[in-house]
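explain this:

___
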Amino acid sequence: MKKILLFLGIISIAGLGLVKGFQKNDFRLGIIAPDRVAILSISPGRGMINLLTVNPEVEVWLPEGMGWYPSNKIKKIFNNDKDMELMKKMFYYNFGFLPERIAFFSEVNDWRDFELIKYLGVVDWARYLVEQENWLYKTEVINRSFELEKETLDEILPRDFADNELMGGEIKITVVNTTEENGLGAFVADRLNWMGFNVVSVESGGGKVAEGEIMVNAPDNSLAKKYTSLLAQIYSCSQKSNETLLPDEAVLYLGQNYASMLKYSSYVRTF
C-alpha cells in the first residue's frame, strides 16, 4: 500500500510540472532483443511516440569491418562484446538515429512496461504516463532488406525519428567526399537527412585529405554550432569557421581516416 501511495504521489508531483514538458525535447532509445532490433522515439514536441522494428531475418549493418548480420543475431554478438560505442554506431548508420540509451529487453514491447523508468528516469517517466494519452502512437516494421526499403526509410525516419530540435533549425549542409570510396558521400548524406539536416548537395573531390573538416559560420550558442560539433565527433573531423557561409549553412568534408575507420566497403554488396 505504501508503494502504491508513493507511486501516485510521484505521478501527481510530475503532473504539476507538465507545463514545462519533458526535461529533454526528445527521448530516443535503441532496443536490442533476442529476436530483433528496434528504435523508439518519444517526442513531446511532435506529440508522438514512434517505434520501428526490424524483422528477425532482415540484416543490419555493423561498421568497422563487421559487415551484415540478421536482426535476430545482434543480441548474441553484443552479449559477447559490450561495446556501447559500436552499438550506437549500428543504430546511427542503419537509421541515422542517435540513441540516448540502449536497452536489452526480452521482447521489444517491454518498453511499454516498467522497464522504461530505468531509461527515462522517475520524473520524466511519470510525466510520460500522464501525457501519453494525448500523443499519437505509430509503429513501423522493416520486412525486407534496407536497400529495398530505402524509399520507406527516407520517408519515415526524418518524419518520425529525427531530432525535433534539429529539424526546427533547418540547417543546410553540403557533403564533400574527398576519399577514394565511391558512394560514401551519398551514404553519409542519407544519414544526415534522416537525422534532421537538410542536405543540399553531395560532391566529390576538393583534394584528398586525411583528416575531415566541417565548415560553419555560426555563433557558439546556435543550433548550427551545437549540431555541427556533434557531426565533428561522429565523422572524426575538425571544426573550422568559414565566413563565406550563412549562419544556417555547413560543409562537411569526409577524410580518408574516417573512411578507413568506417570500412564502408563492407556495406556495399548485392542485396
